[in-house]
């Protein structure tokens, strides 16, 4: 079907008219990483069904798909979105190439709005920072200081500054008084790079913490580039706040909320917004994953506050939508809303009383599952294991396993022995490498993406029996089966996801760290050239 085309000029008008619009890039994240529009969220065609409903929940939202203007990914994504029920769908004519030709700015990297905003914050507020060498000398000298790592625990566990304590971004104001009781203590906030260090440091400054607060310049990357060792495997996190600490945090957050115009709504207003068919309302719980799973409002999704500010485009893609934030006492929700409002989300508000309001039957427990992909033909783990043992050593086996998960997991976490790796949206390339087979077994991390890929694989192998592995790679591993290491059988280029600097091998990781930091710092200069980007100014 022929999709409606919009020009670069028309898209610019849509971005500036104040009505809801979602710009989505259909290319794989690793390709998107190289060059994309500032306002485009990454929704690869290969994973569209998994993420579209979460990022763009209202099906009559204006949606504009784009790619590089060379292939047909945007057209295919638009067609699939229409088939799934989205009605106001268009394609950027000529893609990013046409956007650039019309004078539009293109950006590299991921989470660009948040990353660029972090640099803007440092330039605007003069966020204080400390070089790695100076911090190292203070630590070695036994100085009175506390290092707070503003990343989630799993990132902290991978690498951390010696003496550091994990305290993710939205938790800083909430928990800092349990960590810092002496007003003379130096408070150092760090992350892997720059954004969460800057936002975390400025959060404590905005909250009025009487201590001197600084951001570790360039985070753990800057620390390692300076030649210092990081700790690995530590699990030290800031404790729950006492009643006294909570009172201080609530008063501090209230002042911040007033400064940045953060409003609250009650349950009745939330219900009216959710029933409004003309506007999108995101309901996001900014507490920790553990708190969310213990009990949350029906229909809410967990978006820990620090990560929501750090990677806003991974949680919300509809510009000018309403965002309702939930926590337990208003501290984390208010601090997060203050940053979202500065990012330009004018309708970011806090739900009064949060999860402790009149929850009634609306309080749920457990994690929110990903969207179900429905039934599909599958093969059990035991059957595949038996089949692979029978065909071991055959030059051209009649059963082949194709892993359509990420290249990063295929490479780093291992894969089913003998399996190929490919991308769902590039089945023709996989077919060219693998050739004819009698049975094709698709697998992915949890098996869900593999189920979605069955229809695509059947187009490439019309005569084959195509099935998905029940439970996917996780099930295979948990059943005690062997995993093969390395990147052994790719069928396409490994540009499906962005490889973080730490994902690269040691001999090139250092250069990737330096390149990443250089990129982050340069983002603020690009903002000055882009008329579609502006951040609100607050006193």
CATH level-two architecture of the largest domain: 3-Layer(aba) Sandwich
Given as residue ranges, the uncertain stretches (5+ residues, pLDDT < 50) are none
Question: What is the strand content?
Answer: 5-15%
CATH superfamily of the largest domain: Rhodanese-like domain
The count of β-strands is 22
Q: How would you state the average pLDDT, rounded?
A: 95
The CATH first-level class of the largest domain comes to Alpha Beta
Number of continuous helical runs: 23
First-residue to last-residue Cα separation: 51 Å
Specify the helix fraction band.
25-40%
Instruction: Give the helix/strand class.
Output: alpha/beta
Q: How would you characterize the largest beta sheet?
A: 5 strands, parallel
Write structural notes for this entry.
The chain is built from 23 helices and 22 strands. The model has no long low-confidence stretch (mean pLDDT 95). By secondary structure, the chain is of the alpha/beta class. The strands form five sheets. The protein has a five-stranded parallel beta sheet with strand order 1-5-4-2-3.
Quick structural summary:
By secondary structure, the protein is an alpha/beta fold. It is built from 23 helices and 22 strands.
What's the topology here?
Blueprint: E1 4-6, H1 8-16, E2 21-25, H2 29-32, E3 40-42, H3 48-55, E4 62-66, H4 73-84, E5 89-92, H5 95-101, H6 112-125, E6 129-130, H7 132-140, E7 145-149, H8 153-158, E8 165-166, H9 171-179, E9 186-190, H10 195-206, E10 213-216, H11 219-225, H12 243-259, E11 264-265, H13 267-275, E12 281-285, H14 289-294, E13 296-297, E14 301-302, H15 305-310, E15 322-326, H16 331-343, E16 348-351, E17 363-364, E18 378-379, H17 381-391, E19 399-403, H18 407-412, E20 420-421, H19 427-434, E21 439-443, H20 448-452, H21 454-460, E22 465-469, H22 472-478, H23 506-527
Parallel strand pairs: 1-5, 2-3, 2-4, 4-5, 6-10, 7-8, 7-9, 9-10, 11-16, 12-14, 12-15, 15-16, 18-22, 19-20, 19-21, 21-22
Antiparallel strand pairs: 13-17
């Amino acid at each position: 079907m022929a999709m409606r085309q919009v020009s670069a000029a028309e898209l610019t008008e849509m971005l500036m008219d104040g009505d809801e619009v979602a710009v989505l890039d259909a290319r794989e994240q690793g390709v998107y990483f190289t060059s994309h529009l500032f306002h485009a969220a990454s929704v690869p065609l290969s994973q569209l069904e998994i993420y579209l409903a979460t990022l763009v929940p209202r099906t009559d939202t204006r949606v504009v798909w784009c790619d590089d203007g060379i292939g047909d990914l945007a057209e295919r994504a638009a067609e699939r979105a229409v088939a799934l029920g989205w009605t106001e769908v268009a394609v950027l004519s000529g893609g990013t190439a046409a956007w650039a030709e019309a004078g539009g700015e293109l950006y590299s990297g991921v989470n660009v709005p948040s990353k660029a905003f972090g640099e803007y914050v440092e330039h605007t507020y003069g966020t204080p920072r400390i070089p790695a060498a100076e911090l190292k000398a203070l630590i070695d000298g036994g100085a009175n200081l506390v290092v707070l790592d503003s990343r989630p625990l799993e990132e902290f566990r991978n690498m951390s500054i010696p003496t550091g304590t994990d305290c993710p971004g939205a938790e800083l104001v909430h928990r800092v008084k349990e960590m810092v009781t002496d007003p003379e203590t130096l408070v150092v906030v760090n992350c892997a790079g720059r954004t969460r260090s800057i936002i975390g440091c400025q959060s404590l400054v905005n909250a009025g913490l009487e201590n001197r607060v600084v951001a570790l310049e360039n985070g753990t990357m800057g620390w390692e580039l300076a030649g210092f060792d990081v700790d690995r495997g530590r699990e030290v996190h800031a404790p729950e706040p006492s009643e006294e600490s909570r009172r201080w945090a609530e008063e501090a957050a209230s002042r911040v909320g007033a400064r940045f115009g953060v409003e609250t709504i009650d349950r009745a207003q939330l219900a009216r917004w959710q029933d409004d068919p003309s506007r999108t309302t995101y309901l996001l719980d900014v507490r920790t994953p553990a708190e969310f799973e213990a009990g949350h409002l029906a229909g809410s999704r967990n978006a820990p506050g620090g990560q929501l500010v750090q990677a806003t485009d991974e949680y919300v893609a509809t510009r000018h939508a309403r965002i309702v934030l939930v926590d337990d006492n208003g501290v984390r929700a208010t601090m997060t809303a203050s940053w979202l409002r500065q990012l330009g989300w004018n309708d970011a508000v806090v739900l009064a009383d949060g999860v402790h309001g009149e929850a009634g039957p609306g309080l749920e427990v457990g994690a929110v599952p990903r969207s179900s992909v429905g039934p599909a033909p599958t093969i059990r783990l035991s059957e595949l294991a038996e089949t692979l043992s029978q065909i071991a050593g055959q030059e051209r086996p009649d059963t082949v396993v194709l892993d359509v998960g990420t290249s990063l997991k295929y490479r780093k976490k291992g894969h089913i022995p003998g399996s190929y790796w490919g991308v769902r949206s590039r089945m023709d390339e996989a077919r060219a490498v693998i050739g004819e087979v009698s049975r094709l077994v698709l697998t992915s991390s949890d098996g869900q993406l593999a189920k979605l890929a069955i229809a695509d694989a059947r187009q490439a192998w019309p005569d084959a029996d195509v099935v998905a592995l029940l439970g996917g790679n996780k099930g295979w591993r948990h059943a005690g089966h062997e995993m093969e290491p390395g990147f052994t059988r790719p069928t396409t280029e490994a540009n499906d996801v962005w490889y973080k600097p730490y994902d690269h091998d040691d001999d090139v990781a250092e250069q990737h760290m330096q390149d990443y930091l250089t990129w982050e710092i340069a983002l603020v200069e690009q903002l000055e050239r882009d008329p579609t980007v502006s951040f609100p100014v607050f006193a």
